[in-house]
Amino acid sequence: MKKNNFLVTIILAVIFGLASGIVGEIVARGYLFDNDTLLKKIDFSQDYNNQGVVIRDAKKIVIEQNVKVNETIDSANASMVGIFKKQSTAKSSSGVNFNINNYYQLRQSEGNGLIITSDGWIVADVLPEIKKNPMNYVIITKDKKIYPIDKIIEDTLTSYSFIHVLAKDLPVKKFASDNEIKNGNLVIAITPSGENILTSIINQRVDDISKSVISSDRTVGEIMLNNDSVGENKFYSRAVVFNLSGDVLAMVNANGYVEPISQLTGAINSLLKYKEIKRASLGVHYIDLTNLVLVDANSNNYLNDGAVISKDLDGVAIIKNSSAYLAGLKEGDIIISVDNLELDENNHLSKIIQQHVAGDKINLEYWRQGEKKQVEVVLGQL
């Protein structure tokens, strides 16, 4: 009898369990009606390059973007500094302890910079007066520490300069790669006045590849941001641009041009290695095949990508005594890869060269009259 009662109890428990599950599903579907997709987590991180825009919860839609943006701003700001004209202590009026002239006003800087090494190197597009008299200026970090400038080194290839202060343990942010720069990505621009602007990348371009021959020894990349007004209001002038992961994406010069941080990689590496800037030089002029389409697509010589060594407006294809000249490269050679990295719409020859330092050895793969060849080249100095 007890055994039968036990079995009845088990059966009833199973029946009621199934019934409650069915009722729960009916109620849930009725409550949500056609919005049953909200039962699932909706993740837009793929659309925003894994930058954390997520919607979840059946009854509440929570967008984590705001939290992520605020976290990024706090983190990014820690690696930013202000540049100020050095002040001396002013005498206060009799009986007055406060004098505004004894303070640096953080929103009245002469510009801002980005910390790139923990031991005091900072990159910035600085005013000519600062370059001329660096000892008359100081750097102030976000934790309000003041450091006198002891050195400025200019990068002749860009408008940026490298400032040094005697410091240690400064916060440094990771640099984003060019592959992480995608149209539509949300980014944060931090301006010299301390504004934090949430915007997006709307376009990228390579200078003049459709108009003329490019030099391997010049920077070519540029990013366009939403609300950009280059040459007019200079909306983002001297700002630093971060992605939502807090990585440094780009620098904005005084004219409002947004340049990928990769264009400074070679100068930074040289600075750390030699304590001076030794920009790399290959010494060729070329036409980028990325923006060209062959008329006869069935041709056996059809190439989609690569850099065709060609004469510039001055009639020079390869600079005499340059690295390319000494390596035996010739006009008409088509360079297709550098260190096994194939040249394409994302990997332009000039961008790759300018990420190197003078003295670096690179391996070039190229076509010459239908024959594939390889050569090792020691990069020269600009």
SS field, number of helical segments:
6
Q: Write down the Rg.
A: 29 Å
Helical residue percent band: 10-25%
Secondary-structure element string: HEEHEEEHEEEEEEEEEEHEEEHEEHEEE
Structural class computed from helices and strand pairing: alpha+beta
Shape from CA axes? Answer: flat
Amino-to-carboxy terminus distance: 99 Å
Relative strand content: 25-35%
User: Kindly state the mean pLDDT as a whole number?
Assistant: 81
Please outline the major beta sheet: 7 strands, antiparallel
CATH class of the largest domain: Mainly Beta
Quaternary organisation of the protein chains: single chain
In terms of per-residue confidence, which ranges show pLDDT below 50 for 5 or more consecutive residues? 30-63, 229-233
Explained architecture:
With 382 residues, this protein is of the alpha+beta class. The protein has three domains: 78-89 and 103-165, Thrombin, subunit H, CATH 2.40.10; 178-274, Thrombin, subunit H (Beta Barrel); 280-381, Pdz3 Domain (Roll), CATH 2.30.42. Helices cover 18% and strands 28% of the residues. It contains six helices and 23 strands. The protein has helices spanning 2-32, 65-77, 128-132, 265-274, 323-327, 349-353, and strands at 42-43, 54-55, 80-85, 112-115, 121-124, 137-141, 146-154, 161-165, 186-190, 196-206, 214-215, 221-225, 240-243, 248-252, 258-260, 280-281, 285-288, 307-309, 334-338, 341-342, 361-368, 371-378, 380-381. Strand 13 and strand 14 form a beta hairpin. The radius of gyration is 29 Å and the shape is flat.
